[in-house]
Amino acid sequence: MSATTAIADDEAWSAVLARDRAFDGRFVTGVLSTGIYCRPSCAARHPRRANVRFFADGAGARAAGLRPCLRCSPDDVARDERAVLAAIAAIRSAGQPLALADLAAQAGYSPTHFQRVFARHTGLSPAAYARALRAERAAEALSGEDSVTQAIYEAGFSGPSRFYAANEGRLGMAPSAWVNGGAGVTIRWAVVDTSLGAMLVAATDKGVCRLSFAEGPEALARRFPRAELVEGGEDFAALLAQVVAAVEAPGSAAHIPLDVRGTAFQEAVWRELQRIPPGETRSYAQIAAAVGKPGAVRAAGSANGANNVAVLIPCHRVVRSDGSLGGYAYGLAIKQALLDKEGGRDVGG
Predict the structure, then answer these.
(1) Could you point out which of 39, 67, 149, 175 has its C-alpha 20 to 30 Å from the C-alpha of 206?
(2) Residue 105 neighbours by CB under 8 Å, 6+ apart
(3) What is the pLDDT of residues 108-152, one digit of tens each?
(4) pTM of the entire predicted model
């Protein structure tokens, strides 16, 4: 462990070799042979490991007599973060969509550069972030408003047609379902035996909305008290077979449609979980950094726990920084078994 950064030197060096942008701002790489320091993602040729020292920030590197790299401008990371936070505040306070050019001008960047900076920090473009924010506000309003139309206007949409167009294929359920606990939605379900025990699978016509272990239809009814719950038949059998196969052979789930809904941050975390290759794990800190929020480790853990479709969104691949398993909604035995399957170890039937 370096004396100047909380990140282990081996982890920092791996990030440098991968040019991992998620680590920008968490440390800088000092190259003693050239007298410069860089971002972890710097595109310059990699130095020899023996010539490298890691620092928590540019101030520490400068105190050691190093100067910033002109190619990657490591000291601009803090400026980028301030620009993104200012843009997020502007987007949140605006009553209408903001032009990329205006947000970029506020930050003093070109539109193209600012779009890259914003996406690197949040996982979304400014426009996509604004759309996700409006959808999030609409979902919150719909849960407390008697009028769906009123809730849509309260969320900042110009009218119901814009709301439906913006959320087609994303919310899955009709907007009134957020008020009425799934009213008007048919959810097909089945409980099947797997090598990990009894598994509940439920899906709307959009995709799988629930995958859990040691749960039955009663738990599903509590989540969607006004939905029509139908025990799966022949039409459901093909999807169910795909889900079972994905559980028994983790890593084969990319083609299975999902019907899930979360906040913009939760969905960014879930997308990042789906990018973790089978057989690999990430820490909560790595996930937080990957979605552009390195300080939101606890929030990343909460988003991980809010996942409604186990295995298909592989929250079991997230472990603590020390390598221990951490928590899992369905017990550590199932989490370990899933990791063993992905690692090629036989866990029995």
Answers:
(1) 149
(2) none
(3) 889 988 888 887 666 678 887 787 777 666 655 555 544 555 555
(4) 0.54
